[in-house]
Amino acid sequence: MSIRRLAALLLALLLPAALPAAPPKVAAPEGKPAAAAPAAAETPEALRDRLRERLAEARRELAALEAAVAAKTLPAGIGEDELTRRRDLLLRLAAALQRRLDALARAEAPQPEVAAEPLKLPLGIDQLEALWAQVLAQEAANRALRERLRRLEAEQDALRAETDRARSALGEAQQALEKVAAGEEAQREAARWRVQLAALAVQVLEAELAAVAEERRVLERALARGGERLAGLRARAEEATRASPLTAADRDAKVETATARAAALRREVAQAEAALRAAQEKLRAAREALGALRERSAEQGAPEPAVLEAIGRAQFVAEARRVIAETAAVELALRRRLEESYTREARIWQQRHEAAQRRDPAAIAEARARVEAELQWLQGWRDDLLAQLDAALSEAEARRGELEAMARDDPRLALARQTVRSLESRIGSLRKALDRVKELEGLLARWRAELAVFGEGVGAEARLRDVAARTLEAARAVWNYELLSIEDRITVDGEVVVGRRGITVGRTFSVLAVLLLGLWLAGRVAGLVRRLLERRLRMERGLATLVHRITHVLILVVLALFALESFNIPLTLFAFLGGAFAIGVGFGAQNLINNFISGLILLVERPVRHGDVIEVDGLRGRVTHIGARYSQIRRIDGVDILVPNSVLLERNVINWTLSDDRVRISVSVGVAYGSPTRDVTRLMDRILAEHGEILEDPPPQVLFEDFGDSALVFTANFWVRQRPDRDYREVASDVRHRIDRLFREAGIEIAYPQRDLHLRSAVPLRVHLEPPDGAGGRA
Question: Taking the complete model, does pTM exceed 0.70, yes or no?
Answer without folding.
Answer: no
